[in-house]
Amino acid sequence: MKPAPFTYHAPEDAVEAVGLLAALGEEAKVIAGGQSLVPMLALRLAVFDHLVDLRRLTELRGVERRGTGLWIGAATTQAEVQRSAEVVRNVPLLARATPLIGHFQIRNRGTVGGSIAHADAAAEYPAVALALDAELETVSPRGWRTLPAAGFFTGMWSTALAPDELLTGITFPVRRPRSGFAVEEFARRSGDFAIAGAAVSVELDAGGRIHRCAIGLFGLGPTPLRASSAEKALAGRGADELPPGEVGRIALSEPESVPSDLHASADYRRHVGAVMVARAWQRAVKEANDA
Amino acid sequence: MPDVEVRMRVNGMARRATVPPRLTLADYLREHCGLTGTHLGCEHGVCGSCTVLLDGEAVRSCLMFAVQADGAEITTVEGIASPDGGLSPVQSAFRDHHGLQCGFCTPGLIVSVTAFLRDHPDPTDEQIRDGLSGNLCRCTGYQGILKAVRAAADGAAAEETG
Amino acid sequence: MSAAETAPARYAGTRVPRVEDPRLLTGHGTYVDDVVRPGMLHAHFVRSPLARARIEGIDVTEALAVEGVHAVFTAEDLNPGVREQWYTLVGRDVPDTPRPPLAEGEVRFVGDPVALVVAADRYIAEDAAELVVVDYEPLPPVVDYATAREAAELVHAEYPRNVAGEMAGLPVEELAPVFDEAAFTVRETIHQQAYAAVPIETRGLVAEWSASTGEMTIWAATQSPHEVRLFCARLLGLDEHRVRVVMRDTGGGFGQKVMPQREDMCVMLASRKVRGPLKWIEDRRENLLSAGQARHEHADARMAFDADGSILAAAIDYVQDVGAYPIPWPVQTLPVVGLLFPGPYRVPQGTFATTAVFSNTVGRTAYRGPWQFESVAREVLLDIAARDMGMDPVELRRRNLLRRDELPLVNPCGMPYSDITPLETFEQALEMLDYGAFRREQERARAEGRFLGVGTCTYVEPTTGVMPLYATEGATIRIEPSGKVNVYVAGGSSGNSIETTVVQLTADALGVNIEDVNTIQGDTAITPFGGGTGGSRSGSMTAGAIAETASVLRERITAIAAHRLGVSAEDVELADGQARVPDKPEAVLSLAEVAATAYFQPENLPPGVQPGLEASGRYRARAPMIWANATHLCTCEVDVTTGEVKLLRHIVSEDCGPMINPSVVEGQIAGGTVQGIGGVLYEHLAYDEEGNPIATTFMDYLLPTSTEVPVIEYGHVETPGPGPGGYKGVGEGGAIGAPPAVVNAVADALAPFGAKITRLPVTPESIVTLVRRARTRGTVTG
Prior knowledge:
The complex is a heterotrimer.
Chain A (H helix, E strand, L loop, with lengths): L6 E3 L4 H11 L3 E4 L5 H6 L7 E4 L9 E4 L2 E5 L4 H6 L1 H6 L1 H6 L6 H4 L4 H7 L5 H8 L3 E6 L2 E6 L4 E3 L2 E2 L6 E8 L5 E8 L9 E9 L5 E9 L6 E2 L1 H7 L9 H8 L14 H25 L1
Helix pairs in contact in A: 7-8, 9-10, 10-11
Chain B lengths: L3 E7 L2 E7 L5 H8 L18 E4 L2 E4 L12 E3 L13 H8 L9 H14 L5 H8 L10 H19 L1
Helix pairs in contact in B: 2-5
Chain C lengths: L2 H4 L14 H5 L15 E7 L5 E7 L1 H4 L4 E6 H4 L27 E2 L5 E7 L2 H8 L3 E6 L6 H4 L14 E6 L7 H6 L2 E9 L11 E7 L4 E6 L4 H12 L6 E4 L15 H10 L6 E4 L2 H7 L6 E9 L5 E13 L12 H5 L8 E10 L14 H17 L3 H8 L8 E2 L5 E2 L4 H12 L1 H13 L3 E13 L8 E8 L5 E5 L8 H13 L6 E5 L16 H28 L7 E3 L2 E4 L2 E7 H10 L13 E7 L5 E14 L4 E12 L6 H20 L30 E5 L16 H17 L14 H14 L5
Parallel strand pairs in C: 1-12, 10-11, 14-15, 20-21, 27-28
Antiparallel strand pairs in C: 1-5, 2-4, 2-6, 3-5, 7-15, 8-13, 9-10, 9-12, 13-14, 16-17, 18-26, 19-20, 19-25, 22-23, 23-24, 26-27
């Protein structure tokens, strides 16, 4: 189980990196923490002639308050996120999702940007980015741009990133008063990719009604999903008006192509997904009510 | 596919080699450095047998290329005991509590637990279980390992307060 | 009375720290992948991507052209080199199933080795393997063994109906009157999924052929270096003493490494055709593709009871999947499932039919408690019967478990039980739990909508069985001139702590300090012949070998010391590394002094005593098998919404006789138990309908981790067995007893739903489905 040969590049900065990507074309792949990519290379499920390593790109690391958002460099490791007091304080949903990723040895290498750009539909971070309406900052030879998380995940392991475009940072909105967050997932064993999971954020208005809410789903489609119709059904209603089980049911009536595999059929995923939504919703609402 | 030069410190010793970029850190340590204590149990990042410390942090050496560790400080299981062979507190606890049988997963566990206890000097039982969950063992049913980590933590805590 | 029998045990029975540990803890073990030889080459297999296909042609041109590639072998290169191919464990004269080194003409499962690439390193070998072009003509595969007897296609043309073998007792019709007239009968078809040994170290070997001397040296990951040597010598037509097999550390075997497999054959054959030692290290995907499955089986099991719940008869019709290339011949152990189905219960009448069926999937290999299904079928059936009869399953078992005063006893299928304590272990486990309290807690929890369950399994197990390879075990003890002791046994560390066991037993047998004993194992050139680790035999057989050998040396030491001290031999005691006379403090000689006499002053030896302190002895098993028994008891909580099972407590009360080292015993039990838990809840070596394996990585083949397992609690009942020290085997039992206890615990938790579990694995999804069905039926009670 050894990877096929490749040429290795370790550019000094992001502009050089995207220059390389543009020059090398489709035969090149970005490697950050490599915790998803290297297994695929070892199994030769993926073969690239060139790997462009981000390890020298210190500009892609760090956690910074930027306006009403918290910017996290794409190459920041999940372990750094887990240790960050800023993240715990300002983006609780991200903080709570982090320990669910793999095991601590994986989080020591795995990066925020790598997880989001890899876009595994069963992973936690893409769903969190989607649920929080994070902004994704990218660079390519054509310059810098910012993409909304909505629309970023275009298919199984595919994103709106151009082949020569690099995710450089993610800005998560800082939590607001009277808001609550919860992530719930069901996995066969701790640390496994979720069979189904939900990342929920909810914000109440002064009257205790739902001002806005977001339900991110993972493991329940070819991409992470938002349960938009459930969100719409909830908006403006009393926080306790809809029973959590009903929220779960509505949320899981939406996904159209729920995956089926050795570990769970589509039916079961839908069922347990609804349970996860219900549990996350209940906890998030409670936190918002208590806030 | 040109070879690349890598330099790193492994268990305190400066190493320099020219290697193919696709050489994993695990294979580099085993084959180029002769440090065969780092074991390969799955080569896709699940079993944890190949865990080493990279600048102090526990990582899977099968999920890195040697070239990515250029400039890093690596500690393998061979670097955990004292040079005269004296076992570390974690290693001693594993021996005292029957925390190993065939010993194949053991190096990864020793390295992982060493890092885990450094970061969680006073862990709960649940934290210990969670901290161990990235290392597969097929012999012990984890019973001796759980006891060993508890004892190592308690021993270290006792030393702190004592 | 010989001195060997009078030595008081200082170390046996105690938690002696393991002698294996210092090297293994510091990364200084020597596993096969750690072996590096000058000029070593690396092998990698090209494997079939199809479950069944005709090989129309193989083009190796492109692969051979890769820089660093030394050779690419196909069946026509290697297979004709086979001289004889059979396992000592099974014997030559059995109707063995086919076992070609490389696939010849037809591939029969996904992963079937088709070609072998030899290159300067593994990376290059894998590059070249991708360039080997195999022209396959796909054939319809026989994927499902359960329907294979009716399939139009044959896995092996020479086996009609895809049947590899059948063994049966009395026709079940003869028991029909009992079943017809019984007050109560239960009958279920119970299915178990394929799972496997999955040692964390995969398989592997290094074969170094010396053409000039005609010698073969093999370093192997094996449970039995001597079987590897015998096998290799026969395979290649070499004299046995020209083959040397070395293993220092093996990273777990659990049955998978008892015998060389097809890949090992290929590497042995290929090593004679390449210039340089040849290494093959299986990777994890190969291990899950090709190292073998176990446990894939089902049975139509039934029991008849009288009105009080006493068992009247038991019958099982059992079918196992042996895949395409089982190792070893599966028919030899096939009937054991039937023979043991009555288990530790009073069963007046019983019979069985057993069938081994081929399929186009990976071959069945030995795995820890290979006949474990007898317990799964029986214990699951008993719980179902109890629920149907409205009886507590514990009461049903109490009524039927064998009592000590009924033993020895021959079960209705002819198995001669002795020295077992099923009822005692059962009661001990219940007491450790406080069964009554648990039932009350369960009631309270149910009232709150939480579902707790308790399940048990009581089994008997023949350990240390005498098969040809396993009938004897040897030991050589060499007391050096310094008085330090080296003990040589076949052994080899594979997770069973055999080095520690040997050192403990030898120190006791010679009355020396344990630090003064060293053991040398796992090298066929220097250790006596021995069968290796398998069949829960190492403890008893090695104890016998050491006792035989040490008694010779004790006698000699005593004679020399008595002569030198001027006392009679009966007055000399050996202890603390000394030969001494208990009441005379001045009459003492160190073992070093005795050794010096034995080696360097032959003139001071008493008449008739041999010089030197080196002896070899061989133990012959006294009984055809040594029975061990245990009860597993498991409690769990089931989240009926998600189907998640949380195991709460797992209690094992066993009778393995006196324990040589309680830590080792507990470690074996815990390891086996967690494999059993994995088998019920997580592990599944699954195939899709086309015969494609779908659990070929550790992302899909789910081994239990530290977060899935409960604390395991141990109870011990001690009845000596008919062997040295009274020791019984304990290596396999955990993997036998745990699965039924876990299944029964989950089923008990789901009892209010009227759910019955007859199909493994028990996944969250299967639980939710059971609960849903019950809710649809409206059968929820309690």
